[in-house]
Amino acid sequence: MLHILIETLRNSILISGLVVVMMMMIESLNIESQGMFFKGLRKTKTGQVVIAALLGSIPGCMGGFATVSLYTHRMFSFGALVAMMIASSGDEAFMMMAMIPKQALILFAILFVLAIAVGICVDHIWDRKHSRTCTKHEHSDCGPATDCHDGYAIHETEKSKRHFSIHRILMLLGLAAFIGALATGKLGHDHSAHSHDAHEHIVNEHAVHEHVHTDACTHEHHHDSEIEHTFKINLLSEDWMNVLFAGLSIIMLIVLIFASDHFVEGHIWDHIVKRHLPTIFAWTFGVLLVLGLILQRLDIADWISDNTVLMILLASLIGIIPESGPHMIFVTLFAAGVVPFPVLLASSISQDGHASIPLLAESRRSFIYAKAINVIIAVAAGFAAMLFI
Q1: For site-directed labelling of 22, which of 31, 70, 93, 152 has its Cα 20 to 30 A away?
Q2: pLDDT above 70 coverage of the chain, percent
């Protein structure tokens, strides 16, 4: 229990910190450019979908967090959000590239194309049924006297004096601590237990002579995957993500030092830290804690069946869980030859790792709608793959 609490706390700090840094960067870019940086992007939803699919294709959760941040700021459409969730393979992208590189590339290409197609269709249908207005919106920051079509108020940057207020100092210390935790490997999440359970199930039930060991699947350390009798690979690492996250945080640290009091107090402290951070952290911690307790007592590997249709349905439904561990089980099973490609495809479409947790905190309705669409597409794609593969 203590281990679960510690891991949940580390994960929650990591995810909340990354999302907040993304939101700060988006806020900074939009304010400093007077809205011009994202103005062109708002005009083309097809472009939003393509960019979101590209972000989702980035291994790990970074692209997902960026997309959710852009969506909650109303700079990405709902179709773009769905496209990211379909294209994303989460942390398991590293594992698949190490274990099944050829199949992984094919899978990523299918996910990318499918994500764009579905995203464009969703936007077309969504726009016809849900016209956006400037009334109270669950993920907009429109005020009574703001330019609502841009999603949130764009203020003139005040050339006021820069004071090191208590709020600015607290945020600087928080960012510095976050950067230090990333640099020293104090933050991260561990999926190794899920992959280990799946491996034991494969060995005991199917007598497969391949051994897959995932030593760590976190944002601060790497996957070490080994498949006996075929090849031994230790190529991919998530360490570059920690470097990137730390770099983005350092940029925001510098921005906070030199930014105006208006920007720091009005846009960062009041809008992001006070309004969004508590909600994101609370939901992230709560969801991860509940999932940790459930998954500790639930062995998904025991549900494995030789019935491909049943496995496609199971993989699609399990993908609803905003956690990477269950998907890793299907990756391991596919690498060992226990389940066919349609099952892996359905699981990859339905799941999106931790990227959807911040969305759950910001907009429960969008989370439910997006997940429902993902499950439907996952089931349909899985069955279609059965016919053609």
Answers
A1: 93
A2: 72
